[in-house]
Task: structure prediction
Amino acid sequence: MSNSFNSEHFNTETSQFLRIPLNRIGAVIGVKGSVKEQIEEATKTQIMIDSDTGEVEIRPSTDLEDPVQLFNSRDIVKAIGRGFTIIQAIKLIDDDYFLEVIPLKPLVGDKPNHLRRVRSRLIGTKGRTRKMIEELTKVHLMISGSTVSIIGDYDHLSRAKDAVMDIIRGAQIESVLGKLEEERNQVRKEEESLWVSEGEATPEEATEEIADPFADYEEEE
Result:
């Protein structure tokens, strides 16, 4: 039995719809349509964008085999609309990667000064807080408008989301970052213990054990 997906059976009810900010339409399309074409080729979909409203419709192309790619295409477009680059967003084609969008208004209210304060705390001086969360959790983090968006695999995304939510609720930023660092160190220790139990060298030991092929070489006179 063939597992191919017949896109001819699809209609507008099976298409994916979303809206992106007008100022991000150019980022989704790219120079001479390059970004849009890259997404379409990677996901076997067709992307239609209304430049007046920001409405986007994503349809299956005739050679689409996996309908999940429709949702991947939607999430990639959504991520770029939230401010991510195509290099970051295209990771969502991998089923192990997810996009999480956290709306701030339900959490802090819609007063501009409240939103500015929370965004400022999440970004930090010269972007330090955001960069530290990304480095410690191996995710991509974007604070744009009234949303916080995260791209990462399930475990790392969950850790990053917990950190973001703690900061939004008013936790001390250094305490949040300290907790993330402790968690990262604990994961490293567990990984090293696993390597030792299996008789494998840790990354540090493996580096030390690499022999210099020219160590005993003496140039002839």
